[in-house]
Amino acid sequence: MTISGSPDKPAFQGGFRDIIGHPRALDILQSMLLSEEVPHALLFMGEAGIGKRTVALTFAQTLLCHERQMPEGESEGWIEPCNRCLSCQKFAAQNHPDLTIIEPEGASIKIEQVRALQDKIIYKPLDGPKRIVIIDPADKMNAAAANGLLKTLEEPPSHAILILVTSKPFSLPETILSRCQKISFYPLSLSQVERLLTERKGCSTQEARLIASLTGGDLGEALSLEIEGARELEAALYTLVSETTLNDYDALFDAATAHSRDEAVMAQSLHYLSAWFRDVLVLQSVPNPEILDPSWLVYSWRHEEIRRWATRMNSHEVGSFLADIQEIYQAQVRNVNRQLALETLLMQLRDKVLSQKQKASG
Ligand SMILES: [Zn+2]
């Protein structure tokens, strides 16, 4: 099991203080712990890979902990799991009897899994006052499973707390959404990720910037991507913007096909393109780009090419491309035709970047 927020520690041995980012979500959960008023159903929603599951696990561990505490030196109103009691030990060993994690079996979460859960949670907890269920990702429940779960959400046992985790809340039926208290999670900023990469992995500023940009603020991915891998990935993604590609229709369509083949690859391509355009904007916004220190750029080793782009479009056009990229990014989780979207974008780039050059036949 990967715990993206605290990769250097063994699973379940952390606390809220080890979680990076998500200040608002943590404040809400802390106030629930302090008041001991925890809703029966919570929905953690936000982009994939930003640490929702880590927070769900930490919250579950704290609720189950026999000696949860306010750490010394902390300001009042902050509660952490003790990481020592029997409950925390069972949690760390991933065999706590009162924690159930439901994940897809094959492609989806099925009704049989929900029925098995329902048979189990009607019984009183074995170890403490609560039984906790984490369903991740909840949007993988098929229609029958979601329908089955609805019964539990309508009349939950008093000791049950369900945490549904999802990056696609709009895929869940409204009947489920309306019965959960929703907590939103937001991605870390690129500069937060960069700082963590320099602190935790000893990356140089330049390396951290490249890795953070390619992973679009997904800390788990950023921490697991080594610099050699990042450089290879950059070289592959560079085909999206290279003039060789844009000059040749066949190459352009091949690049669009290859770099949109699934959701994760498409996300990488869009992260790459946004960082590229940000570099173009940087060069456009300095009075004398000729003397700009290239280390200001994400793709500093491509600064001559980026400088050419900066002269071929104005900042308004760059802003418009950035907005398009953002729009495709938001739409792709709703299964817009990824390949067509990327092709269209590259065709527009071709027109823009090559418009002041003699276009090669293609
Ligand atoms: Zn404990």
TrEMBL record:
<protein>
    <submittedName>
        <fullName>DNA polymerase III subunit delta</fullName>
        <ecNumber>2.7.7.7</ecNumber>
    </submittedName>
</protein>
<dbReference type="InterPro" id="IPR050238">
    <property type="entry name" value="DNA_Rep/Repair_Clamp_Loader"/>
</dbReference>
<dbReference type="GO" id="GO:0003887">
    <property type="term" value="F:DNA-directed DNA polymerase activity"/>
</dbReference>
<dbReference type="InterPro" id="IPR004622">
    <property type="entry name" value="DNA_pol_HolB"/>
</dbReference>
<dbReference type="GO" id="GO:0008408">
    <property type="term" value="F:3'-5' exonuclease activity"/>
</dbReference>
<dbReference type="Pfam" id="PF13177">
    <property type="entry name" value="DNA_pol3_delta2"/>
</dbReference>
<keyword id="KW-0808">Transferase</keyword>
<dbReference type="GO" id="GO:0006261">
    <property type="term" value="P:DNA-templated DNA replication"/>
</dbReference>
<dbReference type="InterPro" id="IPR027417">
    <property type="entry name" value="P-loop_NTPase"/>
</dbReference>
<keyword id="KW-0548">Nucleotidyltransferase</keyword>
